[in-house]
Amino acid sequence: MKKIVSLALSAVMATGLVAGLAACNEKTYKIGMICLHGSASTYDANFINAMKEACENKGMSDDLTIVTDIPEETKCYDTAKDLVDQGCELIFADSFGHEAFIAQAAEEFPNVEFCHATGTTAQTAGLDNFHNAFASIYEGRYLAGVAGGMKLLEMYQDNELEDSNFTDATKKTIKIGYVGAWPYAEVKSGYTSWFLGVQSVFEEADLGVNVAMEVQFTNSWYDETAEKSAAQNLISRGAALISQHADSMGAPSACETAGVPNVSYNGSTATACPNTYIVSSRINWVPYFEYIIDCVFNDGGEIDTDWCGGLENGSVVLTDLGTNAAEGTAEKLATVKASLIDGSLKVFDTSKFTKDGVNLTSYTTSYGFEGECIVTENGKTYFAESSRRSAPYFDIDIDGITILTDATQE
What we know:
CATH class of the largest domain: Alpha Beta
Number of strands: 15
Largest sheet: 7 strands, mixed
Low-confidence stretches: 1-25
Helix content: 25-40%
Number of helices: 11
CATH superfamily of the largest domain: Response regulator
Strand order of the largest sheet: 12-10-9-8-6-7-15
Structural class: alpha/beta
Number of domains: 2
Strand content: 15-25%
């Protein structure tokens, strides 16, 4: 009898030990997300929707905590620390100004992985758990520029442009406009690639007509009043087509009111602006979020210090075309996209733009990279954007683009 009791106790103890070890080995599944604004911001909504989709795809919807309206100040660090205290092992922040505070948290909590969008310092921070990510959105903006150029060409050929839409009486240069947030490389890269996309349509048409663009900055990522005012000023100055790198509905709504075609960013405005919306480019963050989730929770390896997605893996996408798009736009975009993916077309081909009247053969950005950022491959010379780090560093002020000063921002 004693032997039977002893065996029974041993079995119970063994079962308890195995259960205890299993409990100790269970991995925490918690993801934290820090956003500059909430879903009312097209920028933040793009991140939020992508993270929710990635977590759903990975069966982790219940493991996600999203914190919104976190400014680019110490509160960002406090929020990151709080998410660590809640057990998050993967924390992502979505705004450029969050970077210093996320890096601070990464240094303090080496067992937590911190990922940050649009940042620039992960390469030099020396932290194994701090990572930057972006995508080649300049290619998406170029495609969106082609769509805008197709519409502008249609308007020109149908004699729908007014005298104010041209720079002078010869009607050989058409004005377009762009609402920019800040005079950073990210914004310059975006509006330059969009401008070159518009311009490419007229070059191919070979009508002897050029395009010139005015840019007005709001000095804010999200200021609906300022963005609307900037668009209205550009329109009053004759812009026949408007795009933006800003996060509210300010510019698209101004275009809808004025009846000016608009290329938006980070999401379709077809419902709110049915008469003027053409297309929108955006970064699709789902591939990146699925990648970092796999790295942290599914033994998918180490997260890249600097990750950059593109058209080829679905990280850069266009929305569906609006009803206002010109005929033949979809077919044209498919052709251009294929050329971007196979490398036969380079957005910043230096034969397609000048600076102070000269086609550049060498250029070093203000970011301190070693060597030149202009390279020659397969007979093409181009600015190699996002090849040295994920975040854009194109900061060239090319001919044909004018930055409005306070005096011209009426």
